[in-house]
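I hope you will forgive my troubling you with a question about protein structure. Here, with my thanks, is the record as I have it:
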Amino acid sequence: MMHLCLPFRYGLEMPAYLTSTATANQLEVSPKALLDLIAAELIPEPLTIGRQKLFEAETITRFLEERTEASRPRPPGYVVRVHSKMPAKDDDERKWIGYAQTYDAGLSQDENDAIRRNALRAWWPVREPSRYVGQVLVATLASFVVATYRIDGFTEGYGRVSFRVSEAPRDAAEILDGHRLRMRPGPISLPLEP
């Protein structure tokens, strides 16, 4: 792992920093996924010096320590792999798709939570969606769980599924929320492995 220590300033030692490549390697994510983690406000903006982007090593270490692998057994459910928020195109039901801590700084946390729920619940390629009703919908960004909901129902359209969701059961949320969920590479949505 490459640490970069910036020079002493005024007799004070600067914290250790990681380059973008070293940060992505430590997090075990792609460079694109690292940008998504920043855009979603899960990792702070890096310090920019010229063309180099530097991340405080302690912050990245703490991020990983707080987001351990989700324990097993896991509740039955369905996983959707999301990116950071972006405007929804050709969708009358929602303004945003993808994940963010905050969609609109002028709104309350509850209002941002409602936007997030709407942004993450649709439109996913799902085989036999009826088998997931009553289970959990787990949204991951770069393998980190960013949201967990209970699937209450679904609507099919455009060859995809839009789930109706509500708050996840507490036991499922405790196992999954804020943890890491490493899944096999592949599709953007898939059943949750127990």
The two ends are 32 Å apart (CA to CA). Residues 108 and 159 are 34 Å apart (CA to CA).
